[in-house]
Design brief:
The structure is a homodimer of 413-residue chains.
Chain A lengths: L1 E3 L9 E6 L12 E16 L7 H9 L4 E9 L7 H19 L6 E6 L8 H13 L5 H10 L8 E9 L2 E10 L12 E6 L5 H13 L5 E2 L9 E6 L13 H23 L7 E9 L2 H13 L1 H8 L5 H9 L10 E7 L2 E7 L2 E2 L4 H8 L3 E8 L10 E8 L3 H8 L4
Chain lengths: 413, 413
Amino acid sequence: MQDIEGGICAPKGFRAGGIRCGIKASSAKRDLALILADRPCTAAAVFTTNRVKAASVLVSQEHLAGGICRAVIANSGNANACTGAQGLAAARRMAALAGEAFGFPAEQAAVASTGVIGVPLPIAAIEGGMDALAASLSGDAAGYEAALEAIMTTDTRKKGCALETEIGGGAVRLGGMVKGSGMIHPNMATMLGFITTDAAISRELLNRALVRSVARSFNRLTVDGDTSTNDMVLIMASGAAGNPPIEQEGADYEAFAEVLETLCVRLTRALAQDGEGASRLVTVTVRGASGEAAAETLAKSVASSSLVKAACFGADANWGRVLCALGYAGVPFDPEAVTVRFASAAGDILVCRKGAQVPFSEEKAREILSAGEIEIRIDLEAPSGGPGGPGEAVVWGCDLTYDYVKINGDYRT
Amino acid sequence: MQDIEGGICAPKGFRAGGIRCGIKASSAKRDLALILADRPCTAAAVFTTNRVKAASVLVSQEHLAGGICRAVIANSGNANACTGAQGLAAARRMAALAGEAFGFPAEQAAVASTGVIGVPLPIAAIEGGMDALAASLSGDAAGYEAALEAIMTTDTRKKGCALETEIGGGAVRLGGMVKGSGMIHPNMATMLGFITTDAAISRELLNRALVRSVARSFNRLTVDGDTSTNDMVLIMASGAAGNPPIEQEGADYEAFAEVLETLCVRLTRALAQDGEGASRLVTVTVRGASGEAAAETLAKSVASSSLVKAACFGADANWGRVLCALGYAGVPFDPEAVTVRFASAAGDILVCRKGAQVPFSEEKAREILSAGEIEIRIDLEAPSGGPGGPGEAVVWGCDLTYDYVKINGDYRT
């Protein structure tokens, strides 16, 4: 498995583009993106679990029900959520515009939107921008970056990557791009993720690999506890790599699922690092829980705690808040058998053993916690002091900063 | 029912006091409090549900098991949590010191602590302060205020009140005081609440009234989603009012339960208003849910949302975030039948009907949301537009501000 350039345009069979059509009225930024496959692709997607779903989510769920996708049309600057029948019509129109421009049925287009909730989507701006959008398409890095820019809102950096691996004797590529910074917990809130691959793979196995990868990556990310109306992660497989089609579980499927999970974890870390106002990526690892689900719940409770997040911002080795957050996670464990370490590139320090403080250097702890990427490592030992259960999970989050409050105090204006 | 002066010293049979014994090493603030009843009282209490429980909680649970309490000894500056066997011994010693000083069994003392987690409690400072603590006792406002000051940590204001009502033909009084500002959701985190009454009431009914009142007040408060290791709400009934003892449900019990709930709601609002860094008290009301529990869950989801809280800080009428938070609460409702209003002393404005925006004046909305106390009113109508279900609940919270981050970024130093 190796890193390659080109993001979602790295796999064979895809072009992308992005323009400014005027949805972000007061901004010169791009706001309309297209990812176009040369041929209909096998597709799979996961969507927000919020009961309030954007029109784009409802339409994409309907269109992807058959597992075939030719294109994604996405806008930023407007979520097209809580917009009623008018919003639903606008989302359908977006899909139809993509189909008309490139000669495929509207049902083969997925639609995505992100931005402010409750404001009618200016569909005329999108209609007026379709020619320019088509002209912006390319199969190289320029097209990929234009598309990526066009789905960004409060994102401060572009988040994308591509990987190549060998499957069935030949090279297979995956590329991904995401947007999102606030509202990413517990299940992919305000995030859009688009992944392309040239692997030949059945719809069922593509879906299985996506669900597993998302469970271990995007769904283990927490920025502020809110779950949005608009989230989706979509993967399109063109089959252009020419590998023997992956149609049952086995070595080829495992290789594909592994590279997909690696890609998703890479994108998840980028999202956490770009959490609204975030100054540090915080990785929380829990080991020794009764099972993986218990470990995940405990780790998420720590990564979501406003008090832990604020302490990370202050580089304060406040391990008591870590124990406190474990304590209200709703999962049984022995508080008197917990070990906590803080770690980063600056080192590793033990601060709590058997649920109580051990002497440590505050200066060293502060140095460790001042890094841009920090780790909270929690071991749930057996009461006897030996190893705990087999459950282990890694969760990603970020610190809580002044800038988070600033960004969200007046988002609409 | 009427307001009276004197807080926890207003009911007959109680004295209180507070001193500085030196637990808060770097501060001149009071850190040790005592509430002393003239005679053993009937008592009831509720405690944190966190699995990591402070030594003070463990000892108080044990001591109050019999329903008899003569005194509460409480310290601030140190939570005595995650302190192992040494911490448990220190908490027992606190109870014994109170008993020795006033000639009652240690088991009749409740113990409470609040402050930093994981640091050994300096019990010698408490031992050394007992004479001064006894000397500080009084049955008037001075004693009450000294005790209240001595349990405060990041609290910025004193939070207490007293009410008088008529039960069984005579006057009965209740007084209460609380500390707490961060970590108050979902179940009374980092809060201590002490309530006194001179009502004569059986232990069983006292407990029933307390549990009901706490469920509708302190447990409907959310500041930052964390639940602490140390919380408790304790009520002591001296019986000195001389009312016919309340030993079964009926008019007297209902009158007592009503005044207790009013007192608890009063204290809850004071806690929300003093939430760490809070600039506004935010009241969220949900009507039309299928039941009270559903209404409470929905209202808490809105009041806990970091995005809603940040919008309140910015006086931004971002009703889309309200719908979004309802959507991930995990309770069924029809998103297309939701009405949202914002209200305050400056007026009342409809911003969302049937789940979609209605035209409204941004200027007026900003004026309403700039008040110190604001209300988010949510009606879940029937899909036909008529009234929704019978479920209704009120929840209290506060906004998310720069100061919250500042206070919690470096709490220990």
